[in-house]
Amino acid sequence: MENTDQRKELKVSAIENGTVIDHIPAKSVFRVMRILGLDRLDDQVLVGTNLDSKKFGKKGIIKVSNTFFKDEEINKIALAAPSATLIVIKNFQVALKKQVEIPNHVEKIVKCFNPNCITNHENVPTKFEVLENEDGIKLSCHYCEKTTSKEDIVFL
Amino acid sequence: MKNRSLISINDFSLDEQLRILDLAAEFEKNPIQKILEDYVVATLFFEPSTRTRLSFESAASRLGAKVIGFSSAASTSVSKGETLKDTILTVSSYADIIVMRHPREGSARWAAEVSPVPVINAGDGANQHPTQTLLDMYSIKKTQGTLDNLNIAFIGDLKYGRTVHSLTMALTQFNTTFHLVSPVELKLPSYVKRHIKEKQLTYYQYTDLMEAIPHADIIYMTRIQRERFSDPIEYEKVKNAYNLDNSMLTNAKENMRILHPLPRVNEIAEDVDSNPKAYYFEQALNGVFVRQALLATILGAR
């Protein structure tokens, strides 16, 4: 006998307190985990990927118990998952819901596109200023001062 | 400016740039001043640049400072695989200031971040060479009496020329009118032109050098390199079009002066050298005064 309730059940179970990151492009789920350092966390982390989504086709979702992120931390994932939604859960209820925002500065996440940049030859943590104009976003390297456009972004 | 590094011309405000130029004029009048006798200047040239290195070493010597350093990476621990960071940390315990030339872009900014002593960038790859920009500004001010409201013509390779890009950006502070003369393949890139447009300054683009000459207060010549062309036939077509000789200067303004970052190959004919409009060798000498001003200011002696 088919249980209709079961079909509606959440694919990734609810958390009591913590953070849900929803609408992550499926291919970026593990990158988002790495950027936020979730692989080194002691708290419970629930992950779903390649879930059906009306809006995105396939999406990923991450639920982290008892962990709350500062804006500048969560915004680091904006380059990998610009569509992501952040949901803060308190006592099984949605306490806050918002979109991630592209930060003004990006550190250590992205490689400089300039092959002659010092960051590609020595152990230098990369650092960029994010420039936004009508052509979309560009990263301006703090060191070589060259710009990396969105389609050339390579994550470290 | 004491103890501050100079990596990009924008690290110094307009007011600070002008103070360096004023101090350079003082050193021009009185070049030998032993005000840095207790200091050691390190010149670290990870790639050879004889002119820039000698200019800095001459500036340091005239101020009484001791100079240590190397003129190519081959003879140093870099060839054994030492990182730039380790080289800088080691040398900074031997010297009070580091002058550095390095083939990688961004190397100077990185060096300044790890170094406990100030760093002057003497060229980081194709990125910045701020002391060249300051000596170009000094040369323009000295020959024209002002930096304001001038007509400056840049000739040759405007796409890859690092000195052209830095000087263009610096000149946007002075209501300059730009005359940009280059082959179509070597036009000034849009990210540099953006700075001209942002300040709503006027610029003209030409492919014919003769059209720009009568307008210019300064002609800034650069060399066109064969390897910049994807099509060698294109190079053959333009290679002689941007060579300046005396006969081309008859319509030039009386006050016009010719600058060139040097080394020159054949883009300025030798018959121009004796023309009073030729200024490129004096320009090189001005580099010593500007570097004296920088060393003295950053080390806090002036």
How would you portray this structure in words?
- The complex is a heterodimer of chains A (156) and B (302).
- With 156 residues, chain A is mainly beta.
- Chain A contains 3 helices and 11 strands, in the order H-E-H-E-E-H-E-E-E-E-E-E-E-E.
- Chain A has a 5-stranded antiparallel β-sheet, covered by helices on one side.
- Chain A is elongated, with a radius of gyration of 18 Å.
- The relative contact order of chain A is 0.16.
- With 302 residues, chain B is α/β, with parallel strands linked by helices.
- Helices cover 36% and strands 15% of the residues of chain B.
- Chain B contains 10 helices and 9 strands.
- The longest helix of chain B has 19 residues, at 280-298.
- The termini of chain B are close together.
- Chain A binds chain B through residues 112, 114, 116-119, 121-124, 141-147, and chain B through 8, 83-85, 102-107, 109-110, 124-128, 191.
Q: What's the gist of this structure?
A:
The complex is a heterodimer of chains A (156) and B (302). Chain A has 156 residues and is mostly beta strands.
